[in-house]
Amino acid sequence: MQATQPAFFKQGPKPLTRLLIFSTLSVALMVGDVHFQVLGRVREQVSFVLYPLQWLATAPFAAFHEARDFFTRQAVLIAEHRKLNDQILVARAKAMRVDALLAENEQLRGLALRQQQSSQGSRLTEILYSGRDPFSAKLIVDLGVNGDVKPGKIVVDTEGVVGQVVRVQPMTSEVRLITDRNHAVPVMVQRSRLRTVVYGMGAGQPLEVRYLPPNADIKAGDLLVTSGLDGLYAPGLPVARVTHIERPSGSPFPRIQCQPVAGIDSHRFLLILDNPPSPPPYPAASEPAAKGA
Amino acid sequence: MPVTSHLPRPVRPSLILLTLIGALLLNLLPWQLIGSHFAPDFVALMLLYWTLNQPRRVGVGWAFVFGLAMDVADGNMLGQHTLAYSVIVYLVLSRSRQINIFPFWQQALAMLGLLLLAQVIMAVLRLITGADMVGVSYFIGPFLSAFLWVPISNLLLVYQRKSVPESL
Fold first, then answer.
1. B64 lies in a domain?
2. Coiled coil where (chain A) (predicted)?
3. Of B96, B151, B87, nearest in space to B115 by CA
């Protein structure tokens, strides 16, 4: 019967046979794919053929997204730009604040250290503002009568002498800086033990040592420290460093310029020192306070 | 195709290929935008349709080839779609004469069963190879596909139902 069947009816293998063949193939594919991972090539080939279809299927959506992006991009970008700008402003303000706090912290640490080291009692004070008078170098600090501050007390920072309390109000006090015009500090040259007086020359100006003989043992780079002779300044506090010595031919005295050691106008916190134990009274008359000339 | 009064036109192989490729294209649309579980399997639908319509042309071999394409396109384990498609196409082949005389809505029910079977086969294969259990939503797609059976069959028959020129 099979042999007599005309070619017209020939359909190849029966459907069941085909199913068995292709199921076996499928299972082989699965085993090969899952257990042996050997079908990378097959996958590559098929996906190469499929790629145009995949591209075609996703192209309209991609184009739609592209178009939508194009139209929203402007608005989004502008909004985002604005937001980022705001954030930058806030962040920058914060960063500046952090920098300031860091510096302040550094100085407070130094002051605390100095407070521990110095045998004298001292009080920490904060600068409220600098004096408004342009002709004198003054600071206003936040301790007054309430902080047991008395005129004549010495004000220092971590590096050296800043000034002297000249006036005390209930809550504040006024500090005259050593750079104030004609403010005098009795000092000695640390290297040579030469005693002299250093004068202020006005706000923002260097200090000056006057009336030294031309052969005095002083040179640029010398450190001037308080001598303690006046009974107000404790001895040994750094005051200034000699920067420049000039010996003009027409003058009997050399001109000696010094730079204050302390950061006169760069800090927020200062230390007010208690007076050193007062020396025994001067034999003839009481010593005049070295409160400027 | 239900019994009709007149003889349908013969189908060109290129039409079969074209519709299958179109179905593949539809399957490749980014369905994940609306949830891939709801995607009707157009390839399976077209394979079933042509197997039912042209049992002497379309068979298990086609199912295997397009199953392989689906496997690669979906990035699935190779062999998953091939086996499922082969099985359902074989089932249609073995009963094509019976199903062919049903009205469309009954055919749709049969197709729903076959498509569900395909999903079950694939789910079981994934479970065997160590995947997690899929949710019930995995079986929503076949319902949508079965729902599309009637309109798609009618659409494709438009071509075949065009009256043959008298001069033939």
1. yes
2. none
3. B87
Facing residue for B79 by CB, picked from A16, A18, A27:
A27
pLDDT at position A180 is 85
A111 contacts: CB under 8 Å, gap ≥ 6: A124, A157, A158, A269, A270, A271
A56: chain B residues, CB-CB within 8 Å: 25, 28
Work out the mean pLDDT of chain A and round it to a whole number: 81
Side chain identity at residue A237, one-letter code:
L
Most A CBs within 10 Å: which of B43, B76, B86, B88, as the mutation test of the A interface?
B86
pLDDT of residue A243: 92
∠ CA A122-A125-A130 to the nearest 5 degrees? Answer: 130
Cα–Cα distance between B123 and B138 in angstroms, integer?
9
Confidence tier at A293 by pLDDT (50, 70, 90)? very low
B89 is in which domain, residue-wise?
13-161
Angle at B10 between CA B8 and CA B15, to 5 degrees: 120
What is the count of structural domains for chain B?
Answer: 1
**pLDDT tens series, chain B, 168 aa:** 555 556 777 888 888 999 999 998 888 777 766 665 677 889 999 999 999 888 888 888 899 999 988 888 777 778 888 999 999 999 998 888 888 888 888 999 999 999 999 989 988 888 887 777 777 777 888 898 899 999 998 888 887 777 666 655
Interface with A, mutate which of B36, B43, B83, B91 (most A CBs under 10 A): B83
Beta-carbon separation of B78 and A49 below 8 A: no
Query: What are the structural domains, with CATH classification, of chain A?
Result: 122-273 (2.40.10.340)
> Which residues of A are less than 8 Å from B21 in CB distance?
53
d(CA A217, CA A134): 35
Alpha-carbon gap: B151 to the closest alpha carbon of chain A (Å): 22
Strands A195-199 and A238-246: unpaired
> ipTM for the complex?
0.78
Q: Is residue B3 part of a domain?
A: no
